[in-house]
Amino acid sequence: MIQEYPHGHHESVLRGHRWRTVSNSAAYLLGSLRPDMVILDVGCGPGSITVDLASMVPQGKVIGLDTTSDPFEEGLKLAAERSVANVSFEVGDAKQIPFPDKTFDMVHAHQVLQYLNEGDRLQAIREMRRVAKSGGLVCMREADQGTVTFYPELNGLNEFVNLYCEVARASGGEPNAGRRLHTWAKEAGFLAADISATAGTWCYNSPAERSWWSGVWVDRIEQSNWRDTTITGRHATQNDLDRLADAWRAWGSSEDAWYAIVHGEVLCQVR
After folding, report:
1. 88 CB contacts (<8 Å, ≥6 apart)?
2. pLDDT (tens digit per residue) in 35-47
3. Predicted TM-score of the model (pTM)
4. For residue 270, what are the contacts with CB-CB under 8 A and spacing of at least 6?
């Protein structure tokens, strides 16, 4: 059975996802790209990274894989707008990737494993390794909510981060995935010598970035699947969420606002 993305595909969720590009969310793999690579992008969402990767391998191709076709229309539209023809999208499960062994030169996953329970995430990594060619790479990046830092230091944002982690763990996920990513790769069968572990960041400070990032979270708190999960799971009340949305509005309206989060990254060589 395919596990659905717990945050759903509300417009506010896709708005956050479509901002992602190779340069701001997968720069750690740029030095490993070749123009003729065949790449699988696991958990591709609306395909902004998928299409970006395809533009960088003009003699190769990129396939985006996700649990539902709901966001694929955005990816296909983006590909058409950028005249990128070597990209396609398929429905599939990271735990049972629907491709033969040793199909891809690179398998990429961005913000996928943190939403899976322990057994499923290790199975997903093993599947990514299975479909990668010998000499190929499995590339994974995960956020680490325990590294979130921001200014002004609003109590409401501290409460939000704690609530986000509580809700994630209640569904079997691990919100502090970034710091654990290299160990998960080893548990899934990669040798330590074949794992290159680094870190990247997202940082929001400019007026446009503050407005966009705070708006994404206000709308997700008020309208997305995360809101419903949080209330039905008795993690917070509607009044609690209203207060947290107001905290995001206050942060976004401050001219001194600054927000950063660290991500763990691994490049895993396939033998």
Report:
1. 61, 62, 63, 64
2. 999 999 999 999 9
3. 0.93
4. 129, 132, 133, 134, 135, 136, 137, 138, 194
Give 175-224 pLDDT, tens digit per residue. Answer: 999 999 999 999 999 999 999 999 999 999 999 999 999 999 999 999 98
Amino acid symbol at 169: R
Q: What's the token pair of residue 65?
A: 């894989």
| CA distances in angstroms from 248 to 146, 155, 193, 215, listed in the order given | 18, 11, 42, 8
* Other Cβ atoms within 10 Å of 150 Cβ, number: 16
Do residues 131 and 40 touch, judged by C-beta distance below 8 A? yes
Main-chain dihedrals φ then ψ at residue 199, nearest 5 degrees: -140, 150
